[in-house]
Amino acid sequence: MSVATGRLAAGADRALAALEPELIRWRREIHAHPEPGFEEHATAELMAARLGGLGLAVRTGIAGTGVIADLDGALPGPRVLLRAELDALPVRETTGLEFAADGPAGHLCGHDAHLAALAGVAGVLAERCEALPGSVRFCLQPAEELLAGAAPMVAAGVLDGVGMALGAHVLSGVPYGTVSANPGTVLAGADFFRLVVIGGAGHAGTPGQFSDAILAAAHVMTALQSAAARETPMGEALVVAIGSVRAGTAANAAPEDAVLLGNLRWFDPALGEYARRRVAEVAAGVAGALGCSTRLEWTGHAPVLANDAALAATAEAAIGAAGLATVVHAPPLSASDDFAEFSTRVPGVFLGVGCGTGASAPHHHPMFAIDERAVLLTARVECRVLLALLGTA
């Protein structure tokens, strides 16, 4: 590492450390005003104003609410994309925190921390652009929780001219001070679906006069679990999960339909394709046997997320050399992230940053909370790895 390079990396790191109170303030402001996928208008506006105020070239309205901002260094080099997610979950928060959201949505996965970290990185690098080689494309993606935001951003051209992609995610199941930088598979592939089981409305006391959509939906759910358990080859992993069941409004009235929202998780794409086919076949067959029909819509998709081995090694070396955290190689998780839409098209690395408090609720739980020191750690890790990918550290 040259003297100039070392000064750039060390100076950026010191500047981030000084910004920690501001990073936490940004995180809390975003946390208190969550917006679900494709509805992140205020969050996108806030981030666009922050990045635009740094002098970056900002584009808004990409894939609905997406934002990109380009920071061009004064020296030649590659362009690296850094992604953070704009959206929250449609789940009510019950943490009781002073800055907790008061409404039907909540930042219960850590996207607020990612946004604050990215804003910090953008700020310190913008101040040092005269010494920066290449360029950074800051990408604020909508609808990650729906697995529906990255693909349309790719279609809109956000990867044009990009040579590498970097993402990071706080992990409540990993203690603060630990970062995972896996070479190879990190997260499962996934498909989200909306399944409508259609029967006939009627009086609940006269079951022989209509087909019962709720009963058929219950049998469909059981049959899907049975199919996953009995048809998945030994040694393979497949999850079929139903996260929402909506039907009816009264105890004595049968509804015309029942709506199931569910998802599949898989590591083998061939198994994922097989599972998608079987969801359709099992649902139609079981519901049909009970006098009902089905309507199936696939609403979201993410490929398996795998790190480029060389980039993962570069990230691990940069984090270790700076003494930022203990770097581990963790087993792949059955969670998913459509960052994979970027990293299947350009070499990518996706890092897990420990934010566990010792008694942390899992991601997507109403009581999910983080060790706020992880906001600064995420920013420091992203900045060091960005500089390493740009060839400066």
Automatic annotation (TrEMBL):
Gene Ontology molecular function: any one: hydrolase activity
Repeat in keyword set: no
Top-level taxon in the UniProt lineage: Bacteria
Residues that hold Mn(2+) according to the record: C109, H111, E145, H169, H364
Co-factor binding details: The Mn(2+) ion enhances activity.
Gene3D superfamilies in the cross-refs: 3.30.70.360, Zn peptidases (3.40.630.10)
Cofactor(s) annotated in UniProt: Mn(2+)
Swiss-Prot/TrEMBL keywords: Manganese, Metal-binding
InterPro entries in UniProt: Amidohydrolase (IPR017439), Bact_exopeptidase_dim_dom (IPR036264), Peptidase_M20 (IPR002933), Peptidase_M20_dimer (IPR011650)
Domain Peptidase M20 dimerisation: 189-268
Protein name, entry field: M20 family metallopeptidase
SUPFAM superfamilies in alphabetical order: Bacterial exopeptidase dimerisation domain, Zn-dependent exopeptidases
